[in-house]
Design a protein that fits this description.
The protein is of the alpha+beta class. The protein is built from eight helices and 16 strands.
Length: 330
């Protein structure tokens, strides 16, 4: 098997990183000053990762580095700097900064119990990029940029979902709501309504950056994503989790078969036949997820897309910063 030059180079970098890190780990057991050298190497590699061109390998390497144990005496100053730069809501944290052994543990931390408001709630801490009525197979992503809903939800290029024909009720509207999670946001996602997840579609793809400044036509359709298809009280609903650079790992708590950030084909899972555990409830249609219940998490920030039918009076607006549990529509 021949490696592409970039992949081969990245493999060499990974081996060298581990070798150097291991050597410093041994030395640091005898001399605490070397902990600073270990941190310096860690920060240099983090700063270089975004410059590497192979987003999937970069994401895997980032995941490995983000899982490395940080010395306890460095955790508070390191995470404090991160909190300051990215505006982390430290008042939501359950544990002190020293508790989190790695960047990954810090990114995916749990938070204090939030109040769940009436109506449709935000599934995550995020910025709302757009709230739009869906009139055909193309829909607004951000200003002057559209995305193809059929290809986005199925992975099939040029596919037309014909969502109007999928409606449960003739008098309902169809909406798209796109929420972007920044690196400093709480990284777990929850159900915005009482939702029955009927199936899951995992669509492998690229892991291109999804920051608002990088958005362009074809980006959402090309990135890796996990699509939950189901229904709520007013009709059909799709909840989609979109990967990005350094965010190849996405989870669904009750789906042990889901493996993301892997070189593989599109995979489908019927949720009507799985055996879900508490707090989820199994029904003949699929897995019932109560409003506000956690569905899964990103290992860093990324994007959640809601596409659903209903008659909604929106109280949130495009461009608004919103937190999980807050009402976005009645």
């Amino acid at each position: 098997m021949k490696f592409k030059p970039q992949v081969k180079n990245l493999s060499i970098i990974l081996v060298l990183t581990y070798s150097v890190y291991y050597a410093i780990e041994l030395i640091s057991n005898y001399n605490q000053n070397f902990q600073y050298l270990k941190l310096a190497i860690f920060l240099v590699f983090i700063s270089r990762l975004s410059q590497l061109p192979i987003t999937r390998q970069v994401s895997k390497l980032t995941g490995i580095i983000a899982s490395l144990t940080i010395p306890k005496f460095l955790r508070k100053p390191l995470f404090s700097i991160f909190c300051e730069i990215y505006g982390v809501r430290r008042q939501d944290m359950i544990q002190p900064l020293e508790y989190y052994q790695s960047f990954n543990a810090f990114f995916t931390r749990k938070i204090k119990t939030r109040k769940i408001e009436q109506g449709i709630i935000s599934p995550c801490d995020s910025k709302i990029l757009s709230i739009t009525k869906v009139l055909n197979n193309e829909c607004l992503l951000v200003k002057k940029v559209n995305y193809n809903i059929g290809q986005f939800l199925t992975g099939q290029k040029g596919y037309d979902m014909e969502l109007s024909k999928r409606r449960h009720h003739k008098d309902t509207q169809i909406y798209s709501c796109i929420l972007y999670l920044a690196p400093g946001d709480y990284h777990r996602y929850h159900s915005p309504v009482d939702f029955i997840a009927k199936s899951r579609l995992h669509i492998p793809g690229k892991l291109a950056p999804v920051k608002e400044s990088n958005l362009k036509s074809g980006l959402y359709e090309g990135n890796e994503r996990v699509v939950l298809e189901g229904e709520w009280e007013q009709g059909f609903m799709y909840i989609t989790f979109v990967g990005a650079t350094n965010v190849g790992s996405m989870t669904v708590n009750f789906d042990e078969d889901l493996q993301t950030n892997q070189e593989m084909n599109i995979s489908f899972k019927d949720y009507s036949s799985i055996h879900s555990k508490s707090p989820y409830q199994q029904s003949s249609k699929g897995v019932f997820i109560k409003k506000g219940e956690e569905i899964g998490r990103f290992n860093m920030g990324s994007t959640v897309v809601l596409i659903f039918e209903g008659n909604v009076d929106w109280v949130a607006r495009s461009g608004q910063k919103i937190r999980f549990g807050q009402c976005i529509g009645q």
